[in-house]
Design brief:
By secondary structure, the protein is of the alpha/beta class. It contains twelve helices and twelve strands. Helix content is 43%, strand content 18%.
Length: 283
Amino acid sequence: MPRIGVQLMMLKNEVEKTGPYEVLRRLRESGFSAVEVSQIAMTTENLVEMRRARDELGIDFGALSAGLGGGPNDSLLADFDKIVEDTKALGSSRLRIGMMPFTAMASHEALLDFCRQAEDVSTRLADEGIALHYHNHHVEFARRGGNTLLDVIRAEAPTMRLEIDVHWVQRGGKDPVRTLEKYAGLVDLVHLKDYRVGELDPAAFEALRDGDRAAFMRAFTGVVQFGEVGEGNLEWTGIIEQSLASGAEYLFIEQDQQYGRDPYDCLATSRDNLVALGYQHLF
């Protein structure tokens, strides 16, 4: 049965303070039982605590994260065997790449090189019983020669599946529901975070009064925020229903920035709003 869970990246600072077991215990107490691990150091100590949380608390590790080269997660190019071992140790069968290396965006040739590497590790992971997924941001919806970058990734790394992030789809100028429908059958993982338009900071109006129009315009064009689910402008019933229709097994709440709020409080708000929409049974 599909489940709504938490992207642990939101709580990476809490993990550094208390260790993963305490974070996962708090999540379990607040009604979450599934997580996706990203930007958490996969040390021996952390892995022991995560396995303890799985065994004692029933935490379901829906997916782990890896990269191709530098970044906050272990690299599939340098740490392939370790990543496979960690994934299996937590009872997961899914890995996700959170973003292509920045250098892969520089040219079509660089993008194709990334795709070749991704396809290679995807087929190797499949031999280990692990599926690899690619997580989109907005940049993948840039168009080159009539195709989006995501179209190129799909064509050139055909065994790699998708993790659709609906906020970044919206920010990329696409409709989340239609995008989920387009990739039906490939979308095992979905990121739930709202697309919120914030208020202009008072400092922007001070800049305008001082004649600094450039500063005002930077604020004016920078009001998009990462919102708690249900606190922004996305239509969540349609998104959830299409996610399920497209085959999603895990829908992870994620909020890249919390703007001064406690991340646990942000997660509680998202959960409450989803329950109010009728999705209690997915937690």
